[in-house]
Write a structure and sequence with these properties.
The complex is a heterodimer of chains A (282) and B (294). Chain A is mainly α. Chain A is built from 14 helices and no strands. The chains are: A mainly alpha (282), B mainly alpha (294).
Chain lengths: 282, 294
């Protein structure tokens, strides 16, 4: 009996060691490219060109960041374009998806079921199918190369309408009924009672929508034709063409680009995970 | 209809108005329009004009060599990326699910590539893979001569594969982790009484219970590979090169629509792609997840 337990303990310790080895090894694999990029963004071009794999810059410089923000007139503009579009798209989605989800969960009226199934069907449509016709429709509206061309088609999201509906369904009605007896109308009840209670669901939505918009590449590529209207992903891609051997500048721009999404993720990590497990069919 | 009911209906449609408008104009109308375009030769010079050409756009695909190259690239990509990213996701989730100290920190760390834009990831990878980049430097330590990774058609797609396995696996890891936490402890306790070892437990209890999730992750992975665009575009400047080795289906559609302005043919390609993706989705819904809709 005794022999068996020590054997078992030895096995446990070995298992722990292997588990930690896997965790640490994968953390290194995850971080190495980012650290390498981060270190390059603080190096001079001369140092980068030597091709030595040193992670700590020999000559630490902020010159690259200065150059992209001051000498490159379009970079700050791209940053603003991306921020503006992502924030507005996020705000509109929070409002519209919640309203739609609420109506589908709480109101009983002819057409309710039909609209719900319509939204479920839309969930299956891949964006590539609607890309070309949407471009032609935006062209008819004269919305190509404009902010509204990027914002309006992205202002609602079927996945999150579905999520909000599920959220409100799982939620006790009592408070809302009490509010209605107190004379708050439908809109009052929604904005003052239901929406404030939906905090966690809204946070999960906000993180996802913001990141999606911030990182989107294909749609701005198709819609924006003028360089001043580019968002950061497109700008970065042009940077690559213009500064082909200036990897110090490209890496500095990449770091600036990653920072907002990273901050958002750090502060809302919990909600992000919740959103994934939801979209993952939970 | 009573006044109360009418009021409820008015409120319902008011709440749904933005959704109906946006989805109507930018999703439903485009679906019909895409089908229409796919049966026409579309001219864009001086206003748009259409000429009905029946199934010609669809027939044209059969002889279009680039369609077959894109499909075979996608196929090669899916067959390598999907199993590897799924296996990696299971492995990481299983390790994170054992009660280790610091596991939440590790989970958060792994997420970094998933929240980073594909444009940034692609540029970092190109920089590491270039001839005088970090990869060749590190290989140089072991006496391996530098290699032109990005210029070699046999390697270019593999570099994108590697990058995507790395950046997508943590996403599926989270889904697995949630599923693992739903497995009741009592199942393992019963196995312990039977004397099952850790690996045996994983193999004969955990994996079978994860089957529905695995099915979901695999189908999502396949759909993702069919939609690959950003990385291939940035990597090849939109050309799908070197020598068509990074040509994907979506890159092909983009090229026909917005470079050659052949929107009818591009729409037909998009319809076929959408049909493939929706078929996979329907199969997946049939087998898994239907009970979760209500």
């Amino acid at each position: 009996m005794r022999v068996r337990t020590t054997e078992k303990r030895g096995f446990r310790i070995a298992l722990r060691v292997i588990q930690y080895a896997i965790l640490i090894a994968y953390a290194v694999i995850t971080f190495m490219p980012f650290l390498w990029a981060l270190s390059a963004s603080f190096k001079t071009l001369a140092e980068i060109s030597t091709g030595e794999p040193n992670f700590i810059p020999k000559e630490f410089t902020l010159e690259n960041y200065k150059r992209i923000f001051i000498d490159e007139p379009l970079f700050p503009r791209w940053f603003l374009n991306s921020s503006f579009v992502a924030v507005v798209v996020m705000g509109l989605n929070l409002l519209f998806n919640s309203m739609a989800g609420y109506a589908l969960a709480r109101f009983n009226f002819p057409g309710n079921k039909l609209i719900f199934f319509g939204i479920l069907a839309v969930l299956m449509i891949p964006g590539q199918l609607t890309l070309i016709p949407s471009y032609l429709i935006l062209n008819e509206l004269n919305w190509l190369n404009s902010y509204q061309g990027l914002i309006v088609p992205a202002a609602v999201n079927a996945t999150f309408i579905f999520m909000m509906r599920q959220f409100f369904l799982s939620f006790p009605k009592d408070l809302e009924e009490a509010a209605e007896i107190d004379g708050l109308g439908r809109f009052g009840t929604f904005f003052r009672i239901a929406l404030p209670l939906a905090g966690p669901a809204l946070a999960a939505q906000a993180v996802f929508i913001f990141m999606g918009s911030w990182n989107e590449f294909l749609k701005p590529l198709v819609i924006m034709s003028e360089k001043a209207m580019y968002t950061l992903p497109l700008g970065l891609n042009t940077f690559k063409g213009e500064y082909y051997s200036f990897w110090n500048l490209i890496m500095a721009a990449s770091m600036v680009f990653t920072l907002p999404a990273l901050l958002m993720f750090i502060f809302a990590n919990r909600f992000f995970v919740k959103g994934i497990t939801f979209t993952g069919g939970k | 209809m009573s006044r109360r009911k009418l009021r409820e209906m008015a409120a319902g449609y008011a709440f749904l108005a933005p959704t109906i408008l946006v989805i109507g104009i930018f999703t439903l109308a485009p679906i019909v329009y895409a089908l229409f375009l796919s049966f026409h030769k579309v001219q864009l010079l001086g206003g748009i004009s259409y000429r009905f050409i029946n199934f010609n756009n669809y027939i044209r695909m059969i002889d279009d060599e680039r369609v077959w190259i894109a499909l075979s690239n996608t196929f090669e990509y899916a067959i390598i990326v999907v199993p590897l990213q799924t296996a990696l996701a299971i492995l990481l989730a299983a390790v994170l699910n054992s009660k280790l100290r610091g596991r939440n920190t590790f989970r958060a760390l792994y997420f970094l590539p998933t929240v980073t834009s594909s444009a940034v990831l692609t540029l970092i990878f190109m920089w590491i893979f270039k001839t005088d980049g970090l990869l060749n430097d590190l290989l140089g330590f072991f006496g391996i001569p530098p290699f032109n990774w990005l210029g070699d058609p046999n390697v270019a797609l593999k570099a994108i594969m590697l990058m995507n396995i790395w950046s997508t696996a943590p996403y599926y890891m989270v889904i697995y982790l949630a599923a693992l936490q739903d497995i009741p402890e009592s199942l393992y306790e019963a196995a312990e009484i039977d004397g099952a070892r850790t690996l045996r437990k994983f193999w004969s209890i955990t994996l079978p219970l994860l089957k529905p999730v695995t099915f979901f992750v695999v189908t999502m992975g396949i759909i993702g590979t069919f939609q690959l665009f950003d990385q291939a575009y940035i990597f090849s400047n939109g050309s799908g090169g070197p020598n068509n080795s990074t040509l994907t289906v979506v890159l092909l559609i983009y090229g026909y629509a917005f470079k050659l302005l052949d929107m009818g043919y591009a729409s037909a390609l998009a319809v076929v792609l959408a049909a493939i993706i929706m078929l996979i989705t329907v199969i997946q819904r049939r087998i898994f997840g239907e009970e979760k809709l209500n």
